[in-house]
Hints:
Blueprint: H1 3-30, E1 41-46, E2 55-58, E3 63-68, E4 71-76, E5 87-89, E6 94-96, E7 103-104, E8 110-112, E9 121-126, E10 131-140, E11 146-147
Antiparallel strand pairs: 1-10, 2-3, 3-4, 4-9, 4-11, 5-6, 6-7, 7-8, 9-10
FE2/S2 (inorganic) cluster binds at residues 79, 81-84, 97, 99-102, 114-115.
Amino acid sequence: MKRRDFLTMAGVGACACAAAGAGVVTLDFLQPKVLFEPPTRFVAGTALEFPEGTVRFDREHRAYVIGASGGVYAMTAVCTHLGCITRFLSDENVIACPCHGSRFDLEGNVVHGPAPRPLPWIEIKPDGAGNLVVDTASLVPAGTIVRV
Length: 148
Ligand code: FES
């Protein structure tokens, strides 16, 4: 094989590899990059599952469903400081943020900063079949309790 033919074949091969690489990158670019989040509405359970003092954390939907005197309410679990997911500490009866130490009472009020605002309350209502349905996308005024 002549040197010239070898270099020509090597050049063609290099160009083919580069074209294949560009094709793979282009196909990857054309794929949709969508993050699928869970639906905002979920069934929390029946009202009987939330006697007074019950605090249930729904990890998937990042929400608390809390049994209160004569009713049930729901709050988001997303900290109002920088968006970390809070946790309920049953031994202290507070909701605490692990990121920067904010603490909230069971009505979402800030008892220790740096969180600037209370935890927002979210919609919870009966669905007609005996279940309570929470919608994390629908904010309601604090104090909105579903009477059961
Ligand atoms: S994100 Fe919760 S205290 Fe900073």
